[in-house]
């Protein structure tokens, strides 16, 4: 018992404090989308203009159930798989404390907060349109998530990361009308690329990995029946092929110029020119 008290005292001493004061913002667990550390302690304080209250949307939430806990204003505690949880906090300031115990770590969370004028009801502003996502990782959701998506919509999402990367995509919440409200995923920049799968219903689809730096998702709903839809996390990583010096087919040696390491770039260019294959469509292949 003494040990537990001492440990939690130590944890409080080195807690990290993060302050948020924009009208809207995103809270990430430490290392997100990588796993948070054991024995962690982070305090998030959100302060929005007076006359508004705070709405929280859990776009992704996965922690060790009962042990790695997010405490909201000393009262509500959240742990486990809670993607899609949403709540109103009737105050213009709130403190959230995330503590993890000494064993087992998970991905943690990405929580969005919004300011809502006192006396009005939170309305999601998640419009359905073609959206380009080009950060190294992000969350993609159906419109209004975790509230029901509209009937009769069609949305497209293009994920395009830097040229040396591939994309891993996993749904973290999934609930659509089976057979009628469908997410289609293509391994490329548009619907001409190879189809990876059509997904609908209540079962979580398997994780997906792209073969290039683009991934294209379409979501369409029919005229009746709507559910909470989906939330999906994509991350990206440097392609092993690229590391080995095999340039993706869509790249010319010049387009590789965006790479930061100039020495590697010069070396790649030189090798590519030496070994350039005959024929316009052929990609330069470099052996080490
Ligand atoms: C939460 O707990 C802290 C420390 O125990 C205390 O200072 C603070 O006033 C509490 N907040 C609320 C809303 O109870
Ligand atoms: C969802 O379906 C219900 C019942 O069919 C309908 O009244 C409602 O407008 C739909 N919601 C949206 C966001 O389209
Ligand atoms: C469904 O959406 C299409 C395209 O926006 C529109 O033309 C059509 O009228 C809509 N149908 C219904 C029944 O709302
Ligand atoms: C689809 O993407 C490919 C690769 O970027 C491009 O060459 C092609 O023109 C695109 N097709 C359409 C219909 O936009």
TrEMBL record:
- Signal peptide location: 1-15
Organism for this UniProt entry: Caenorhabditis elegans
Tell me which Pfam families the record gives.
CUB
Where's the CUB domain? 13-116, 128-237
Q: Which domain of life is it from?
A: Eukaryota
Stated name of the protein = CUB domain-containing protein
Cysteine pairings via disulfide bonds: 128-155
Alphabetized, the UniProt keywords read: Disulfide bond, Repeat, Signal
